[in-house]
Specification:
Layout: E1 2-7, E2 12-19, E3 22-30, H1 35-49, E4 59-63, H2 69-86, E5 90-93, H3 95-101, E6 108-116, E7 119-125, E8 131-139, H4 140-147, E9 153-156, H5 174-181, H6 201-204
Parallel strand pairs: 1-4, 4-5, 6-9
Antiparallel strand pairs: 1-2, 2-3, 6-7, 7-8
């Protein structure tokens, strides 16, 4: 079984191709505002390097948020068009699930993304990956009260915050992510949509 993983929910392109339990190729690079221009060519490059055609993929896993509104749409668009045009099964996971799954710590995992103005996108998972607090857009002060009750915890984030916290950087473990979610139920490509966890600023002003 070959699986393509795509995550463009931040300023990074995180993508990998796996065959069974082996990662054939991967990319984890920061592109910032150039992400929309380089994401698809870099994915195509992985295929070419490994002499694979698009039809050689059996499943697509795409991150559908939360994170950068623009970034999320890039990955979703690539994955939806790919899955629909070639009739390839597709499923979604959140960026917070990917972050927690990649952890090597035997602790409660608290993946967190800066949502600005004192808010974060965050979730809490126990050591076995069970959801303690589902992904949510919430005030940092409210989340802090909850995680302060945990005896052992690991905050995971690549973002900077206006408050001091002890955190570990997010380094995607593509093998763990893909193996954890490759059997997740597939959905209709037309139903694959961003999950921002909050309204866009334009929608909030309506």
């Amino acid at each position: 079984m070959r699986v393509l993983y795509i995550d463009t929910s931040s300023c990074y392109l995180y993508s990998a191709i796996a065959e069974e339990d082996k990662i054939l190729d991967s990319v984890a690079e920061e592109y910032g505002q150039n992400l929309s221009e380089v994401a698809l060519p870099r994915i195509v490059e992985m295929f070419n390097k490994n002499n694979l055609s698009p039809t050689d993929v059996d499943k697509i896993i795409v991150v559908n948020g939360p994170g950068s509104f623009t970034g999320i749409r890039i990955g979703i668009t690539i994955a939806k068009v790919y899955a629909w045009s070639l009739n390839i099964p597709i499923t979604t996971i959140t960026s917070l699930e990917a972050m927690a799954t990649s952890s090597k710590e035997e602790k409660h995992h608290v993946p967190m993304i800066n949502a600005r103005r004192g808010y974060v996108y965050a979730a809490i998972y126990d050591k076995e990956g069970n959801v303690i607090h589902k992904p949510e857009h919430l005030k940092w002060d409210d989340l802090k009260k909850e995680i302060d009750q945990l005896e052992d915890k690991e905050i995971i984030s690549n973002d900077e915050f206006d408050w001091e916290i002890e955190k570990n950087p997010y380094n995607p473990d593509f093998s763990k992510i893909i193996n954890t979610y490759k059997e997740k139920e597939s959905i209709n490509p037309h139903l694959v949509n961003p999950d921002y966890l909050k309204l866009t600023e334009a929608e909030e002003k309506i």
